[in-house]
Amino acid sequence: MPNIAQVLKDEIQRLAKKEIKTPTSQLRKGLVALKRSVADLKKRISELERENRRLTATTRKRQQQQPAAPSDETASVWFTSKGIRSQRGKLGLSQADFAKLVGVSSLTVYQWERKEGKLTLRGPTKAALAGIRGIGVREARQRLEEQDEGEKKTAKKKAKSKGRKKVVGKKVKKKAAGAKGRKRR
Prior knowledge:
Elements: H1 4-65, H2 72-76, H3 81-91, H4 95-102, H5 106-114, H6 123-133, H7 137-162, E1 166-168, E2 171-173
């Protein structure tokens, strides 16, 4: 004959577990929901930190690329197409390299060199040209190399991030096939 005390004890444990299961299941559901929200918040924080780093780097890059605001010295300085051509020739640079050094396109340098008379330039461009006036060939080459190194670093970062999927909230954006993926008949 089974021990009545043992059977009674087992039955009490079974009933206690059954009674406790209902309130604890509510707590478990709440705990799971809280864990999910914490995980979502952590993801959001990491995304925001990444975005912050990217924006900070972009801001620094722009500040480095932009010369100082035009001062009184640059306001009184003026440039001609002949002066631009001779400066570029003195530095031994192509139009493309000279354009990189100044921070404009090579087409702009071409147009400056073809224009007659005094050139009308904006403040930052005028400041950049005034800053180049006093440098020599070595320093010009050095500045170009520094810019090329900076471009290579950003190109590597872009290449790395190109393969990643962009996550927005809980949805993943994928590139649509669009018109390129369809065949015309």
